[in-house]
């Protein structure tokens, strides 16, 4: 319903602008175009005192094209239900309680139908609430304009929805809540909102009939070929009988079932997204510091992941996958995720993406023993121990070390391979893992220079016996499984001057890329190679297309967790669609085109879940980090 517009003009403006010029600027465009037809200009100049009345008339429901009907001396606005609208949404749009709507429209108590006509009682309108009432989209959903100092929690409470549902419906919230944003409000889910009031209007082939004076239930039943009992049932019983000027819902007979089961729906899957959105904590951060910019860190990570996952879900839906996706905020501690994971609905899911925390995964695995659980963030291999239905998709340090050994031995079997084993007890296990990986890969190469990798033992202050094992006639490939900053810094400092005398390639650990003591120029000289679980090539056409689409949908840039959300969700939804709920032991058949990571899932023991053996090799060159050539 449109409200009368109160105009207060500053005195200088009112004097400086003639009414004939001012009035058109104050009206909506469609009324502006009609103005010459409504009032001749000369008459306008003489009726300046009637301006507020004229505006009120033009902007009233009748003036804006909404029919106003009077029944038993009471005024009603006539509203026709469109697809997507709910009774609760209509009540918020017109600022009229649901109870008053169902009182005026008994049939609405049983749910809405597309095309149904409702009478909105004007004596029930809350004028204060009407001033900030949400508008409708063409889809039938409500749109709320965010005011200053509003919080996501407050908006969710106002409309009876979960905060997670707001974020799921409005991906741009990944960038934070801002005044002036327009949020699409999903159907209400709060307990105090009746289920029928929250249900979107259905297409049931019913129609609305305007009751005329003298009509009876018997005559209407004959007219439409239905029984009086069916009419009463479709209209809340009609305890008060028929009233002229009101609308009845005329039900359509149910359509017969297709013969032979034709038209049966394809399998529909239930998918749970369990993410640490930490919405309450995010609100508390902003409440404590109104000037705080951005989101709580964990909220930002989960929001980016969710936005990427939504794009994958939309892609799979367009390819025909039928699924219901349930979003849960599991927070970042057991007090939040505990009650969520104890919900009975967890046992009916076919796939879980998340949670992120090992404790939450342990608890979920004990409850949901049939559904596959995906841990999409870095965790130790302990997260899959004893949980055969859990996948860990981010390669851990042991996986990366094995990848480095296999890659170096395969690509450089004919070169001078040297494994550096300094006396660092804390890194002995890393050294052993790399040694085994190199030896295993060399054994498969018939063109290898030697059967075993050379081993050198440099110290923290010198190169030790490494100098004597460098070969001036061959490429020297140095394998350094160390994250000790002091050792790595000293080694790089001593190796860099040797680059002119020897050809050197160094294979180091991912942590080297974040060691501030290492100069990028030195890493370039040593042609440093490091293994990584993923890499975003911003110049790749598929990545550029994703980034552009992400920015369009979310009004913010795609970070690493957005890519992770897309790739992980796309891979496991594809597995579910192609192989069914028992896809776990057939993951080797699943092929997707990920944007920034690979999937080579392998079960880590009969009693355990799956780890990802896929990794990439990155190379420091041209003062940047790129995929190895």
Notes on the protein architecture:
The protein is of the alpha/beta class. Helix content is 35%, strand content 15%. Helix 15 runs parallel beside helix 23, helix 16 runs parallel beside helix 17 and helix 18 (397-411) packs parallel to helix 19. The protein starts with 10 loop residues before the first helix and ends with a strand.
Average of the residue pLDDT scores: 83
User: Biggest sheet: strands, sense, closure?
Assistant: 7 strands, mixed
Instruction: Determine the strand fraction and express it as a percent band.
Output: 15-25%
Cα Rg = 34 Å
Give a brief description.
This protein is of the alpha/beta class and 629 residues long. Helix 16 (334-341) packs parallel to helix 17. Mean pLDDT is 83; it is low at 1-47, 49-59 and 257-265.
Question: Topology of this protein?
Answer:
Layout (H helix, E strand, L loop, with lengths): L10 H6 L2 H8 L2 H10 L2 H6 L4 H8 L9 E4 L2 E7 L6 H8 L3 H7 L12 E5 L5 H4 L4 E2 L5 E4 L6 H8 L3 H7 L12 E4 L9 H4 L8 E4 L6 H8 L3 H7 L12 E4 L18 E7 L3 H10 L8 H22 L4 E7 L4 H8 L9 E3 L4 H10 L4 E4 L14 E3 L4 H15 L4 E5 L7 H16 L10 E3 L18 E5 L5 H11 L7 E5 L12 H6 L3 E4 L8 H14 L5 H20 L21 E3 L6 E3 L3 E6 L2 E4 L2
Parallel strand pairs: 9-10, 9-11, 11-12, 12-13, 13-20, 14-15, 14-16, 16-17
Antiparallel strand pairs: 1-2, 2-3, 4-5, 5-6, 7-8, 18-21, 19-20, 21-22
Helix pairs in contact: 15-23, 16-17, 18-19
